[in-house]
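During the reporting period the student researcher (J.K.) took over the structure-prediction task from the postdoctoral fellow and processed the backlog of single-chain submissions. One of the processed entries is reproduced below for the supervisory committee.
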Amino acid sequence: MNGPHTPVLMDEVLAVLEPGAGRRIVDGTFGAGGYTRALLETGAEVVAFDRDPTARRFADPIAADPELGPRFKLIESRFSAMDELLGEGSMDGVALDLGVSSMQLDEAERGFSFMRDGPLDMRMSADGPTAADLVNELEKEELARIFFVYGEERESRRVASFLIRRRAEKPFTHTLDLAEVVERALGGRRGAKTHPATKVFQALRIAVNEELSELEAGLESAERVLKAGGHLAVVTFHSLEDRIVKAFFTARSGRTPGGSRHAPPVQGGPKPSFRMVFNGAREPAEAETAANPRARSAKLRAATRTDAPAWKAAA
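J.K. obtained the following structure tokens:
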């Protein structure tokens, strides 16, 4: 697998954002800085966001670059705060590359992966409850709900029951320990194509980091921060994220769910604040997925800001 500096759907995202000299772009998910560096190399100005404090080690070399540094700024914050920190109607483009980054998965001490043993943490930032806190403290029904809703794990109640029984003997502290108990609960084998604990780990990571509510707030923030004609490009990696992005663009472009982009806008509501750049989602070409397996599940959706006011934030 390529290293963490290989962003997914890079060419397609750049084509949507149309970066260049004089353009101000938000990279809402800085990570290892792949999108940011590519955007800066076009002459654009980039304001990047990342709540992970370890992202600073990738930002410092860019900031020190005499050509790129003067046009770059990293803000250590959630991307949902971009409109508050940058001002409404101030940016020409926003890029969001969602989910956990390769560098986070590769660092065992972060606790995101069951491929290497490490503390059961999973926090993208340095604060808040860890995955261990959730597994060891939540009631059975809440654990099962998290596994079912965020991991789409059909055997969520069975897994939760196994975890409750085991934690009564000894609390969970490490990733491999949790993965092995989930594997026993589901009767799977580690040699299978997908490890039985995959969905449970995804669910815990989403819950720990409040990823779906952050995405919903971030899309609304992007709507406010973009000027008319600005572009929003969102890359998702699983169906939960993609459904949220699809629903947002469907509503904001004035289309009915499942309707054609050529259909007339829905009447009676706010004016459409976006128009779709293309219908549906774009997926990576075979060459990209062969070179970077992480890209297999990626989908890109994109839209352009109209001159209509931003919609009221969801309650």
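The committee noted the following: The domain at 10-103+211-305 is CATH 3.40.50.150 (Rossmann fold).
J.K. will present the remaining backlog at the next meeting.
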